[in-house]
Each structure stands twice: as C-alpha cells, then as structure tokens.
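Sat 14:20. Reprocessing the chain from the morning session after the first attempt stalled halfway. Input below, unchanged.
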Amino acid sequence: MILLGSTGSIGVNTLEIAKRFHLHVDILVAGKNISLLNEQIKIHKPRIVVVSQEKDRSLVEHANVLCGEEAILEAIENSSSSLVVNALVGFLGLRPTLKAIECGKRVALANKESLVAAGAFIDTSKIQPIDSEHFGLWYLMQNRAIASMTITASGGAFRDWDLKDLATASLADTQKHPNWSMGQKITIDSATMVNKMFELLEARWLFGEGNYDAIIETKSLIHALINFKDGSTTAHIANASMQLPISYAIMGRVDEQILTPVDLVKAGSLEFRSIDVARYGVWQIKEELLKNPKLGVVVNAANEASIAKFLLGKNGFLDISKDIIKAFEKFSDAPSSVEDVFAIDKEVRAFVESLA
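Finished this time. Tokens:
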C-alpha cells in the first residue's frame, strides 16, 4: 500500500493492521513527526518516503526521501501498489485522492475534505471510507427500504459547558475531548460539530441522496443507525477503535476478531442528545448544505481558514462557526468542475482571512 499521513492516529493504526496481516508498505508519506517516521521506516522498510518540508529531508533515515505535494503525486503515479490509504488532514488531501483514482488505484479514505470539497467529481466506487460512522452505515445496509440514516457524535469538548463560557474557550480547552485523543484540527472540528456535518456530506456522496442526520451518543459505542421504512432500526455498536474500519477498507473482509466486543452490562445506560444550534452554531446550515452538497468546498475552506486564525489568536472559538456561516451565505455558486473547486477554495479563504 501507499500510506499518506503515516504518523497521525489513522496512519499509526493502519500500520498496526499492516503488521498484523503482513501487508507490504511501498510508500510512507508523513508530516513533521520525523522521529516516529524513522521508527516506522525501520519496521516497514518502504521503498520511498515523502515528507512535507525540505528542512526535514536530511533527518529521515532512508536512502530515497522526497519532499512536497508534487512528490506525493509522483510517488502515487509511479507506484505499482493498487491501494492508497489517504489519512492526510485537510484540503491538502484532495489532489492525492484525485491522482490515485486517475491512476486506477483503490482509495481507503480517511481524508474527509476530499469528499466534502469535491464529492461531485470523485468516483466513489473507488472509495472505501475509513470512518467508524460510514463504516457502520455500510455494515448495516441490507436489501430493505431505508427511511433514513443516522450517525452519532460525541458532542466534543464543550458538550457539557455552560453556553455563556463558550465565548472564552481557549485552544487548550478545545483539545479536551471527552472520549479519546485525536489530532488538533479534528478535535476542534468535533467541538464545533463541523466534523459531523462533514460526515453527513460524505455519507451523501457515498450512499446517494437520502435522509441523513446526526445525534449525540455520549459514550461513543453506537456509531451509526439505519431506520427502515418498516419502522425498525438497526444500530452498529462497537468499541471505539479505527482498526476495524481500517481493516475492512484495506482487505475488503475480515473474519477474525479485531476489537474486544462491547459489554453492554458494563456499559450500563446509554445517553442520547439532540444537536443544539445554541451550542453548535454551524448546525443551522446543515439542512441547506445537504440540499446543496457541492457547496461543501465553501464550508471546508472557511473552516480551515477560520481555524488558522483561531490558532494564531486572531479570533475566538465561536467565531469559527460564525465565519463559516458568513462564507456560506456569500458564496452560493456551486462548482461545476474540479478546477472550480480549487478556485472557490482560494476565494473563500481570502474572504475569511479578511473578516474582522
């Protein structure tokens, strides 16, 4: 396989699965965590390594080290591997997804932004999502009439905060996820609920038009539910680990135990909550976005640009959702091509950066 984003949580878990099932890793692509990358190189012995910054090239303990976005695309094109695991974070992951499909490769996709920004222009038959929610929906699907599909959210770092305190929430506060440890950006996205809105958009592109929604399940044991037209509902219940969806995405089928089964007696009661617009301001555009899914590029660009401001202390936590809504109201023309996606992305970022 070609693994993009090897040192992030998805990448680390992917390499655990690769080691367990003796899968060959042809190319490793990583960001700034060079010490972890060097450990991975020793174990998996990739043919090529790609890092993001030129200054890190000399620190990588490998004879064939490339650098930058173009190097990623060239490595994908020149590899004989038929599988690309894309665990890159952000809009940066879109071009590699497009390149992999162009080259006839299968994509195990953890990069949400690829489908969010350009789902209309991606052949989803070549995509297997690495996401517990989409995996759960796929796992539950049967040959029965579906009324609606529901995914679950943890509620993020601020699900139990007093609403009046959100205006002063710090970057450190956003990282205190109640259920697990993830990367910085996705933990912020979890706190704003942008992450869940992205997952609804992904579901729309993966499974087609339909009725999609999300609710909060505080223990993160239920990942997805399908409501059938006969009035019954099935739920996908599993302990929170990305190794199960990764295993299926890479190998297609798994017949041995990957996770410890959920002990429902030990879990006790489960708590469900609705997603409240007062706490998660961005949720007010959810329905409109699902009606116009091509506008995902606007929401993604605004989100990334506003988070960049938040990381620099140029705006507050609540401003992230406000900036997204302002951009969504301003940019109403949907892209008609991949080229439009990249052009709109630049325009939206510039607009958000200009906001006070």
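The mean pLDDT is 96.
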